[in-house]
Design goal:
Layout (H helix, E strand, L loop, with lengths): L2 H4 L16 E9 L6 H8 L4 H10 L17 H13 E9 L6 E5 L2 E2 L9
Antiparallel strand pairs: 1-2, 2-3, 3-4
């Protein structure tokens, strides 16, 4: 699971009001090279919750993202490379996503998060 995906997921258990961002418990992390596409990154920049991305990247062992950002940084090749690496090349292969409010764990196996709810959570 890429951090791009993680940045879009939240806990949808009935009654949960603070289900984003999900906490990552990583067991296995992979780096999978992807061609850099600056236009894609510039378009996604405004859709990404930055603090959630920084925290998620740190939980996968990557701490090269700045804590705060400015759209002008999108002109920096170094920033684009770091943003690209965190967003698209880091993969949570095995582990869990944890709801910050309830502590419910959603397993991630072979890079696929299982976000299915139990009957009593709907």
């Amino acid at each position: 699971m890429r951090l791009l995906t993680h940045n879009m997921l939240s806990c949808n258990i009935k009654g949960v009001t603070n289900g984003f961002p999900l906490i990552i418990e990583a067991e296995k992390v992979l780096e999978k090279p992807v061609d850099l596409n600056p236009d894609f990154l510039r378009n996604m920049f405004h859709k990404v919750e930055w603090k959630a991305l920084v925290d998620a990247a740190k939980s996968l062992g990557y701490s090269e993202l700045p804590e705060s950002v400015d759209p002008a940084m999108l002109e920096s090749p170094e920033f684009l490379h770091r943003f690209h690496h965190a967003l698209l090349e880091l993969h949570l292969e095995e582990g869990a996503l944890v709801c910050p409010e309830t502590g419910r764990k959603f397993p991630v196996n072979k890079g696929i998060p299982n976000m299915l709810l139990h009957e009593d959570e709907v």
